[in-house]
Amino acid sequence: MYRLHGFCQSGNTFKVAFLLRALAQPWEPVYVDFMHGVTREAGWRETANEMGEAPVLDDGPRRLSQSGLILTHLARKHGAFQGKTQEEQDEVLRWILFDNHKFTSYFATFRFMKAFGPAAPDPAVMAWLRGRIDNAFGIVNKHLAARPFMVGTAPTIADFSLCGYLFFPVEESGYEVETRFPHIHAWRTRLKAVPGWADPYEILPGERIAPRW
Asked: In Å, how far are 5, 182, 184 from 145, measured between CA atoms?
């Protein structure tokens, strides 16, 4: 059985949990108390992940970190959601890299500062991040205007990667998607119909926290 180390506020953990459920693979959640700084502790980094990040996936004796790598490993191992051809698989990787660098990166940071940061966020920093989010979301929205999923005609791990933070309550980020990016919203609705989808707060460990700012 897989063991997935993470917490319910983590969209990166959700990406992996969603894929495991879509693959119909048994898995066990392992709570990571990120909000109280466990990932900054030397002991946790020595035993769990030297990078100090969640998620971490235990696959038998192997321990994997970084959601993009974990998604790729699972898709390849189970022969699903990886793209039908080498060209599609290259496209999947291209979008995962874009997601990790821009789409998820900016949005997850913005949401964390707005909802969970220890102090009220700097308006100038938030405005800078919002501009980067607008650009990244605009690129994906345009891409989805002519296709149902990011690559090909069926979901791939590119979709699982990009959608990770889009199922949390809008009040956590204050960033409205439905009317501003209709193609992303329609795609998000399609992903909810994928067998295995569930609300992050229902399937991941930890307690839901009210937004702070």
From this structure: 35, 9, 8
pLDDT tens for residues 66-91?
A: 999 999 999 999 999 999 999 999 99
Strand order in the sheet with 27-31: 27-31, 2-6, 56-59, 62-65
Tokens of 146: 């002519």
C-beta of residue 31 within 8 angstroms of C-beta of residue 203? no
- Best CA proximity match to 44, nearest among 5, 78, 7, 13: 5
The pair of structure tokens assigned to 198 is: 């569930």
Q: What is the pLDDT of residues 163-182, one digit of tens each?
A: 999 999 999 999 999 999 99
Residue 59: strand pairing partners: 62
CA distance 79 to 117: 39
Domains of the chain (ranges, CATH numbers): 2-80+197-203 (3.40.30.10), 86-192 (1.20.1050.10)
Asked if 32 and 54 touch (Cβ cutoff 8 Å), the reply is yes
pTM over 0.85: yes
